[in-house]
Write a sequence for this structure.
């Protein structure tokens, strides 16, 4: 009896292993909740979009320099158990001024600085923001994030309305 179950068990283990590798290194599906990326995501007001996440660019590049404008799925810098989705606004060696609607932000050493003060993005880091400033906790709150926190790029909305995700920074996000 055990010998007849062995091929089935082997098949299940092989399928599970291939699925794990595929969803970790190639593509996965993610549920996007909240309003921080409106109007790009959750435009129907239902607060949930299902997106295709592409992990391949992170696997094939030796130097992990993200592309400005891409929507990234990121391990939360404030809670490692959670993931967040934000748009990459600036990359290493670029200077950025935090959004005007923020009172202050914190540098890495937790010393506050005023919003008019330009920030040089350090090597191996990037600046991320939600498209909807009023509903987003982003780099304006926690500063530049390590590129290593990027898990993949949201490429395509699968549900509720199929469409590609824009890699252009909306004018409303950055004036």
């Amino acid at each position: 009896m055990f010998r007849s179950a062995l091929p089935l068990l082997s098949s299940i283990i092989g399928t599970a292993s291939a699925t794990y590798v595929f969803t970790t290194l190639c593509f996965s599906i993610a549920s996007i909740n909240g309003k921080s990326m409106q109007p790009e995501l959750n435009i129907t007001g239902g607060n949930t979009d299902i997106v295709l996440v592409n992990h391949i660019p992170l696997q094939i590049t030796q130097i992990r320099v993200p592309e400005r404008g891409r929507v990234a799925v990121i391990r939360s810098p404030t809670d490692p158990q959670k993931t967040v989705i934000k748009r990459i606004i600036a990359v290493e060696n670029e200077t950025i001024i935090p959004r005007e609607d923020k009172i202050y932000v914190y540098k890495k050493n937790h010393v506050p600085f005023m919003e008019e003060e330009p920030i040089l993005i350090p090597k191996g880091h990037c600046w991320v923001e939600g498209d909807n400033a009023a509903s987003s906790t982003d780099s304006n709150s926690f500063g530049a994030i390590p590129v290593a926190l990027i898990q993949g790029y949201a490429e395509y909305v699968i549900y509720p309305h199929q469409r590609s995700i824009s890699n252009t920074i909306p004018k409303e996000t950055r004036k």
